[in-house]
Specification:
The protein is mainly beta. The protein contains 5 helices and 30 strands. It has a single domain, classed as Kelch-type beta propeller (Neuraminidase), CATH 2.120.10.80. The protein is 10% helix and 40% strand. The strands form 8 sheets. Strands 1, 2, 3, 28, 29 and 30 form a 6-stranded antiparallel sheet that branches.
Length: 420
């Protein structure tokens, strides 16, 4: 994505059925958009079970995973050009909450739907060969971890093939459906803190995959940062670690990695948001969110401009580091309708970034099985100023509980926020 351009948000409404409509809207200087344009509508694609990767797109291409159908499509959302990948090897499925052992305690992680496939796939560009590759890391029904690769534009007979490198044992245990971060020819997965192997996790919490050599590796982190990181993201071309302590200390922090190519790879703070310093309405909105993920900064990139933060409740906030302010700039329900019981994304986010690629679009060979209808030029959806806010009835009690907990911890000297 060109960081000099104004960012465009990509979103799709989580409506029941077998049709998914994709929209895009510009966020100029971190200001709220007045309208959105329809990119395309795809039939035979359930919006409730769609997973997109990466964000931003890879040379205009987006990997679309239809989870319940176990189908992968690579699509240019600007042109509608797409290819449906051949069937892949079956992965292990779970039909009850995932259980992870941490010491003597079991932790349950609810999956967004049942049955749920233990796999994760990402799209990346191999600069050495000029090819795009889809990489799928998964746990076999036998319990063995495996990795397969599909090369776009390759011979049709090639299909999926095992990756060239050796798959590390136990990596299949932390696959909970989240796609990896795609960045500069690498894919990155954050290991779950509940998998065990604490001595490895503390030093090497991030699994990496070199798309060119097809070899796995680890990204080191300071132990304290490793314990506190909840998500990874691509923030303006840098691998970003999200340290989300909104519930316990009313703090939200981002750290970026200098990269494997640097002489001494290291992590440095990008921003720190103190929710106590924000207006109560904004602070409450951020506290009630389950997931808050950075998308990009405004025009200029490289640490300049407001940082856009997407949430699981289909909103985007803009953080202004110079003024220390946060304001909501996007709310999906202002543009499209969706059921109230779908106010929370089933798997992380329904909002990402769009990259317009038409004239220099990558040609996709192969057959596409989606029924795609492009949005008409000039067909926009105007923001509805009077839309009603959807709220979960239990949010107020939960919010008050988090506030009391944070206040108690701040007052207790033994629970001071640990600095990195």
């Amino acid at each position: 994505m060109d960081h000099r351009a104004e960012p465009e948000l990509l979103f799709y409404a989580p409506v029941p059925g077998h049709t998914t409509a994709f929209y895009a809207c510009s966020v100029r200087d971190g200001e709220a958009p007045a309208a959105a344009r329809e990119l395309l509508t795809a039939d035979n694609l359930s919006a409730e079970h769609v997973v997109l990767s990466p964000t931003p797109p890879c040379h205009g291409l987006t990997l679309i995973f239809e989870a319940r159908a176990a189908e992968y499509h690579v699509c240019n959302l600007s042109t509608g050009d797409h290819v449906t990948l051949p069937p892949c090897e079956p992965a292990a499925e779970v039909d009850s909450p995932l259980q992870f052992l941490d010491g003597a305690r079991f932790h349950n992680i609810m999956t967004p739907w049942f049955p749920f496939e233990r796999s994760s796939a990402g799209l990346a560009f191999d600069a050495a060969t000029g090819e795009h590759k889809v990489v799928r890391l998964f746990k076999k029904p036998s319990g063995e971890a495996s990795c397969e690769v599909y090369t776009l534009g390759g011979a049709e007979a090639d299909g999926w093939r095992p990756c060239a490198g050796q798959v590390m044992p136990h990596v299949g245990s932390f696959l909970v459906g989240m796609p990896p971060v795609s960045l500069d020819g690498f894919l990155y997965w954050l290991r779950s803190p509940y998998v065990g192997y604490a001595e490895v996790l503390e030093e090497k919490p991030i699994l990496s995959f070199n798309v060119s050599t097809e070899q796995f590796g680890w990204v080191h982190m300071p132990p304290e940062l490793a314990r506190r990181t909840s998500h990874l993201a691509n923030l303006d071309g840098s691998l970003c670690a999200v340290v989300d302590n909104r519930c316990f200390f009313e703090l939200y922090e981002l750290y970026t990695w200098s990269g494997a190519a640097s002489t001494s790879p290291s992590w440095s703070p990008r921003c720190s948001i103190n929710l106590q310093s924000l207006p109560e309405q904004v602070s409450d909105e951020l506290l009630e969110e389950r997931d808050v993920i950075p998308l990009c900064s405004g025009a200029g990139g490289g640490g300049k401009g407001k940082i856009l933060l997407a949430t699981g409740r289909h909103k985007v906030f803009a953080y202004d580091g110079e003024r220390g302010t946060v304001e909501r700039v996007f709310r999906m329900q202002d543009f499209v309708d969706f059921p109230e019981d779908h106010i929370q994304a089933r798997l992380l986010l329904n909002v990402g970034l769009h990259e317009e690629r038409v004239g220099d679009a990558v040609h996709l060979g192969g057959e596409g099985r989606l029924q795609v209808k492009l949005g008409r030029r000039g067909n926009t959806v105007v923001k509805r100023e009077a839309s009603v806010e959807h709220h979960d009835g239990s949010n107020r009690c939960t919010l008050d509980m988090f506030k009391r907990l944070a206040a108690s911890r701040r007052a207790n000297a033994t629970h001071k926020y640990p600095k990195l």
